[in-house]
Specification:
One of its GO terms (molecular function) is heparin binding. It is a single chain. Helix content is about 10%, strand content about 45%. With about 550 residues, the protein is mainly beta. The protein has four domains: about 110 residues, Sandwich (Jelly Rolls), CATH 2.60.120; about 120 residues, Immunoglobulins (Immunoglobulin-like); about 100 residues, GOLD domain (Jelly Rolls, Sandwich); about 110 residues, Immunoglobulin-like. The strands form eight sheets. Strands 12, 13, 14, 15, 17, 18 and 19 form a seven-stranded antiparallel β-sheet that branches. A five-stranded mixed β-sheet has the order 1-3-8-5-6, covered by helices on one side. Strand 24 and strand 25 form a beta hairpin. Helix 1 runs antiparallel to helix 2. The longest helix has 16 residues. The radius of gyration is 39 Å and the shape is elongated. The termini are far apart.
């Protein structure tokens, strides 16, 4: 079975025979319509996927010819709609064998045309389909014939892909699907769904050239990778040229996020209509989709992709709803008691505390030990305050007896945070010490020597104890030391060798409530980390912000 480029001229030659025959018994307008249809048809390439663009309500026609040779001659046609449902059909146009044979070789004359009028060609529809599924027609030709494909979109402009092959012996452009192409859901969690599917025969035969790609979204399933790409583009996002092969972050748009880990590629397309997540997992046939939202319905599609041609086949899509987030456990706050809460920054879980008021006026105190914490307080279900807290923060609230307060805490960072919380109705007995206007430590550059450093910090009007500690560090430790410092930990967490001194001081005049200290016995050209702890009457320490100072190298 072969195809000859001589058939490029067939429509006009065949039209002369067919048209003369029709002209005898049909109006002139019909003849002109046939001429227009043939003239505007295109040749469909054999063994190659063709992209066809359709305008609304305007049919488009392609044709191909099967010559008389080794009969029967098999052929397959696969049509993939990339958006809306379309209508398409296959027509077989059979003419006199002698005419087709000579026309194929460009050998005809007027006498042959006259003969063809006595043996007119006949056209018959052998297949038609309407929908948006990928559809394949497998046919067998027993004689020379002209085949015409007609495509029509009645909803809007769209595009499709068409694949014709007459060589059924040399493998497949499209990867094969298993006999059971369904996707099984084998596990559902609050933020994860685990999927499994049967291996494609193509993966078992050509493992190095085939891989599986998943599509996750909240709207609906997609019947082809082509349809998915079209939907992503229509939502205002751009898709990399080859969905399954987009391994370079430079191909991504600003609204796309690529994650590559453990040989898995994830591309998250963000838009106002939601996100579409694309995940390529190699040849694994199980996958747990992470980072989903609780109590949300998701649609899952699996495509087996040929890496050499980028052709793909779709498994039967499925959907699942993640489990509802369990009600957060409530911890009861007791009047005057301090509790410390550690918050998971990676999972972004909310920690909830509850307090029932025994007085009309109460005060919440929050001391951020590490990182920044989001604090949200409601009274009887209504929000009274919500803000991010770092350092020490007080909230004085007024209400009624037996009002119920709910405190929700969450880390604002990806790393873990911790915070101390206290609620009290005894304002005259504060548990935390009175704080100065600033908790910063100042160093004096001009007073630095090779073996000493002078630092200063603010005090208060209240007689308090201040303890100074020092620690020798390296250049590459500065960032870690400053970021990991637990500002709720007291001097008891430090080594004895790091202690410099402790002293008491205060001043009624806040303008003069400043103290300085010169720390001696240091090494030249060395970095030191200095900390000051304020010890209140209750014994709860407040740690000033750490200060890093380097002694002079030469004096």
């Amino acid at each position: 079975l072969k195809m000859s480029w001589a058939w490029f001229y067939l429509p006009l030659r065949l039209l002369m025979a067919v048209g003369l025959c029709h002209a005898i018994r049909a109006p002139t307008s019909t003849f002109r319509s046939d001429l227009f249809n043939f003239y505007h048809s295109l040749i469909l390439a054999d063994g190659k996927e063709t992209t066809v663009h359709l305008l609304k309500d305007i049919p488009k026609r392609y044709y191909f010819v099967l010559e008389e040779g080794r009969a029967p001659a098999p052929f397959t046609i696969t049509v993939t709609p990339c958006d809306v449902p379309i209508e398409w059909s296959i027509l077989r146009h059979k003419a006199a064998a002698s005419f087709l044979g000579k026309a194929a070789h460009g050998d005809h004359d007027t006498q042959e045309i006259a003969k063809s009028q006595k043996a007119p060609s006949t056209a018959s529809t052998i297949f038609n389909y309407k929908g948006n599924s990928v559809e394949t027609y497998v046919g067998m030709s027993y004689y020379s014939a002209l085949y015409m494909l007609e495509f029509l979109s009645t909803e809007r402009d769209t595009h499709i892909t068409v694949y014709l092959t007459t060589d059924t012996t040399s493998g497949h452009l499209y990867p094969e699907l298993p006999l059971d192409p369904r996707i099984d859901i084998i596990g559902i969690g609050h933020t994860t769904v685990t999927l499994a599917w049967k291996h494609s025969p193509s993966v078992l035969q050509h493992r190095e050239n085939i891989q599986y790609c998943l599509l996750v979204n909240e709207k609906h399933n997609y019947k082809s990778l082509c349809a998915a790409e079209t939907a992503i583009r229509s939502s205002g996002m751009k898709v990399p040229p080859m969905l399954a092969l987009s391994l370079s972050p430079y191909l991504l748009e600003p609204q796309q996020v690529m994650i590559l880990s453990n040989s898995e590629l994830s591309i998250i397309n963000r838009a106002s209509s939601g996100e579409v997540r694309q995940i390529c997992v190699g040849t694994k046939n199980t996958y747990t989709v992470p980072s989903l939202s609780a109590s949300t319905q998701y649609y899952f599609d699996v495509f087996v992709v040929n890496l050499l041609t980028n052709a793909s086949a779709a498994y039967t899509g499925t959907f699942a709803r993640t489990l509802e987030e369990p009600e957060p456990k409530l911890t009861e706050l007791k009047d005057g008691k301090v509790i410390q809460v550690v918050l998971d920054g990676k999972k972004q879980k909310v920690y909830s505390l509850q307090y029932q008021a025994r007085h009309k006026r109460i005060q919440f105190t929050f001391q951020s030990c590490r990182g920044q914490v989001q604090v949200h307080i409601t009274k009887n279900g209504k929000t009274v305050t919500s803000e991010n807290v770092s350092g020490l923060r007080y909230f004085s609230l007024k209400g009624n007896l037996l009002d119920t307060y709910l405190v929700q805490l969450r880390s604002t960072e990806q790393s873990n945070s911790s915070v101390k919380v206290q609620v009290s109705s005894h304002f005259h007995k504060p548990l935390f010490p009175l704080l100065p206007d600033s908790l910063k430590i100042k160093s004096f550059s001009k007073l630095r020597t090779c073996n000493s450093v002078t630092i200063a910090w603010l005090g208060t009007q209240e007689e308090s104890k201040y303890c100074v500690y020092k620690k020798r560090i390296e250049e590459d430790q500065v960032w870690t030391e400053l970021q990991s410092a637990d500002r709720c930990a007291g001097p008891e967490s430090r080594h004895r060798a790091e202690k410099v001194l402790c002293k008491y001081f205060h001043d009624i005049n806040l303008q003069r409530a400043v103290t300085t200290e010169t720390i001696k016995g240091l090494d030249a050209g060395t970095l030191y980390l200095f900390d000051v702890y304020l010890m209140g009457p209750s014994g709860i320490p407040i740690r000033y912000y750490s200060k890093v100072v380097k002694t002079r190298k030469k004096c």
